[in-house]
Design a protein that fits this description.
Structural class: alpha/beta
CATH class of the largest domain: Alpha Beta
Number of helices: 11
Distance between the termini: 48 Å
Order of helices and strands: EEEHEEEHHHHEHEHEEHHHH
Number of domains: 2
Largest sheet: 6 strands, mixed
Radius of gyration: 20 Å
Shape: globular
CATH topology of the largest domain: Rossmann fold
Oligomer: single chain
Number of strands: 10
Bound molecules: adenosine-5'-diphosphate, magnesium ion
Length: 281
């Protein structure tokens, strides 16, 4: 299910005094099985972009196509495409609303022709996939769970439709470090099985470890689209655009201020360790 974004622009409340031009003339393609990070300052258009990619907003101009089919063309059955894309919104746990975990996860399957035994099996699979024991959790009220568990239930509610593409809006924000780590490993395992992952995050360290490609938005423009290494190991670029830096980048800068210059900027903690050992040998 490759994604193609062509000359995509989006304006909120167009034609009113409140109109906001959120995205301007974006062009990009996403192949099957990629793991993409989207970064940029608050208000730069990240959430708008993923809603357009998921077909939840209609472009003001330009188009988004999935497997060659345009969401909003008259020829495409409008409600077929979104089933291939699972979207996890920001703070998804606030959207849990059913009385039990099982009902919440099953919600997206409600209007499908699946028999109730099949729904049950799919819910079991989704919960076990996110590391929650079906028997233990199915009857619990979602709001009685820990933050990390609630987010896993929300993810199970998206996975239950078996999407080819998983789009996540700041999925690790607000989780403790251990839950963040577990969550990112879960994404890696989906990605290893061929699921395309598109993830907005302010956590550059997490993206350095997990994403393969980074899209950088600034004031609604796509200002960079390159490999994770090219973008996140480029401390000058990150500084110029006020994007923060990775911890590895900060340590590398600190070392160079102490006259310890590493031959090429490391991207991950492991690369930093190897480069340091080599430099000190
Ligand atoms: N529903 C909305 N109505 C009007 N303007 C909006 C709406 N949602 C977002 N915007 C505006 O669109 C721009 C991009 O917002 P958004 O995509 O949410 O950015 P990000 O996710 O990068 O923080 C911002 O200027 C924001 O204020
Ligand atoms: Mg946002």
């Amino acid at each position: 299910m490759p994604i193609k974004v062509s000359d995509l622009s989006f304006t909120y409340a167009q034609g009113t005094p409140w109109q906001v031009g959120a995205l301007h003339q974006l062009n990009l393609s996403i192949a099957d099985g990629e793991f993409i990070g989207i970064i940029g300052k608050t208000g730069c258009g990240k959430s708008t972009l993923i809603q357009l990619i998921a077909g939840l907003l209609k472009p003001t101009s330009g188009s988004v196509s999935l497997d060659g089919q345009n969401f909003f063309s008259a020829k495409t059955p409008r409600f077929d495409l979104p089933k291939k894309i699972g979207v996890l919104f920001q703070n998804p746990e606030i959207q849990l609303f059913e009385t039990t975990v099982e009902k919440d996860v099953a919600f997206a399957l409600e209007h499908t022709p699946l028999a109730s035994s099949q729904v049950k099996e799919q819910v079991r699979w989704a919960l076990e996939t996110v590391g929650l024991n079906y028997e233990k959790f199915k009857e619990l009220p979602p709001l009685s769970l820990s933050g990390g568990e609630m987010r896993r239930v929300a993810v199970a509610g998206v996975l239950v439709i078996k999407p080819d593409i998983l789009v996540l809006d700041e999925p690790i924000a607000g989780l403790d470090p251990k839950s963040q780590d577990g969550f990112l490993r879960l994404l890696d395992s989906f990605n290893a099985n061929g699921t395309t992952i598109i993830m907005i995050s302010h956590n550059l360290d997490a993206l350095a470890e997990h994403a393969k490609r980074i899209l950088v938005l600034e004031d609604g423009f796509l200002i960079r689209d390159a490999s994770t290494r090219e973008v996140l190991a480029d401390s000058q670029f990150l500084e110029k655009h006020n994007l923060g830096s990775t911890q590895v980048g900060q340590i590398t800068d600190g070392l160079s201020k102490c006259n310890l210059h590493l031959p090429s900027p490391p991207l991950t903690g492991q690369e930093l360790c190897s480069a340091l050992l080599e430099a000190l040998a």
